[in-house]
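Backbone-to-sequence.
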């Protein structure tokens, strides 16, 4: 075997060894690779403005555009997950004109444009059809190739007249064949004021899946036992929202240790504190007195993701620099390592693992401009390789 082949073999993605444990994201010694090896391992950033779709036919695009159901400048991707060379994006229906709220595309070397196709199909994107997706705000890909999508059921959140077409739900899809594996509803777990925002997926030591969902309006985390089809709501202490004029965004981030222990970190954007709880307690319903104060935030912190291991990635509100915190260390500034900064001052909304290419990637956009309706022909978006000291 040639030296190049050996280097490539050493850099191959570690196989997932169980249904509930991700492999650690390997670090590639790219400085030791030949130019040929680096070329084979590399994948380009993908960049786009607005959104273009793979339409069934040209007539479909024309009909949707003429009816106001396809308005490219109203489309923005906020969350991403990567499976091999497939990239899945959540495109919330913040405004009208978003034909698909869960899409996929390919990581292709040499591609000069980005085209999206609905996932799993067009019929699952129909507004007003409660068995379909209405507005996906978060997605999680687990170690069993199941993509979990959190759907708020609300369309037009940034419009003057948002519409609650359907109750919130989670749909789980097999990414290999697009088949629907599970539907989760929240009957009895939410109220009319609930605002479900972020999702985490966990597996117990026995392989049973659980999902955790943040309900910002209720100051709560929903815990759902997927196998048993039942859940409960954890009311968070008032200290979690202390100092907040309003309960705005409730971030979640779940970290995993090699021994199988996982911890759920959570914080409000407006809060001065970061909190955590071991997920064993959540799965067993033993939450009283188990929530811990992880530390004090120096500024408002936007959690953008994890490496599916012990690291949490975040940025400060309004700032493009992305930091990595190893949760095995104290939550202190000395342990916040800068790992990425956008050249164009775009803001990251998600940090996601790319296992095939052994990299972390950052989904970023001019999201503040989008919120204010100042994106011209469309929001500028890109999925970029994170290059830093991680």
């Amino acid at each position: 075997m040639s030296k190049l082949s050996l280097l490539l073999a050493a850099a191959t993605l570690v196989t997932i060894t169980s249904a509930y444990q991700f492999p650690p994201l390997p670090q590639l010694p790219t400085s030791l690779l030949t130019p040929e090896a680096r070329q084979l391992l590399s994948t380009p950033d993908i960049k786009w403005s607005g959104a273009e779709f793979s339409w069934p036919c040209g007539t479909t695009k024309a009909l949707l555009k003429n009816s106001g159901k396809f308005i490219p400048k109203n489309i923005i991707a906020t969350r991403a997950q990567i499976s091999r060379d497939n990239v899945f994006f959540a495109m919330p229906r913040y405004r009208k004109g978003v034909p698909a709220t869960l899409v996929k595309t390919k990581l292709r070397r040499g591609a000069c444009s980005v085209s999206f196709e609905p996932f799993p199909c067009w019929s699952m994107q129909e507004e007003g059809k409660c068995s379909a997706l209405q507005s996906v705000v978060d997605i999680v890909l687990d170690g069993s190739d199941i993509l979990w999508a959190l759907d708020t059921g609300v369309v037009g959140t940034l419009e003057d007249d948002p519409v609650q077409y359907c109750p919130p739900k989670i749909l789980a899809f097999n990414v290999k064949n697009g088949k629907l594996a599970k539907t989760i509803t929240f009957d009895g777990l939410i109220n009319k004021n609930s605002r479900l925002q972020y999702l985490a997926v966990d597996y117990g030591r026995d392989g049973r899946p659980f999902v955790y969902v943040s309900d910002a309006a209720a100051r709560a985390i929903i815990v759902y036992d997927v196998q048993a089809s039942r859940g409960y709501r954890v009311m968070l202490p008032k200290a979690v929202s202390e100092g907040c004029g309003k309960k705005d965004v409730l971030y979640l981030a779940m970290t995993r240790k090699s021994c199988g222990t996982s911890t759920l970190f959570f914080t409000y954007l407006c809060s001065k504190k970061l909190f955590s709880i071991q997920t064993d307690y959540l799965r067993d319903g033993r939450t009283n007195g188990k929530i811990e104060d992880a530390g004090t935030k120096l500024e408002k912190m936007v959690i953008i993701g994890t490496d599916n291991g012990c690291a949490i990635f975040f940025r400060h509100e309004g700032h493009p620099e992305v930091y990595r915190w190893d949760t095995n260390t104290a939550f202190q500034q000395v342990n916040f390592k800068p790992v990425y900064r956008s050249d164009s001052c775009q803001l990251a909304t998600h940090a996601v693992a790319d296992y095939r290419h052994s990299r972390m990637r950052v989904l970023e956009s001019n999201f503040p401009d989008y919120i204010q309706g100042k994106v011209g022909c469309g929001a500028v978006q890109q999925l970029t390789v994170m290059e830093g000291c991680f």
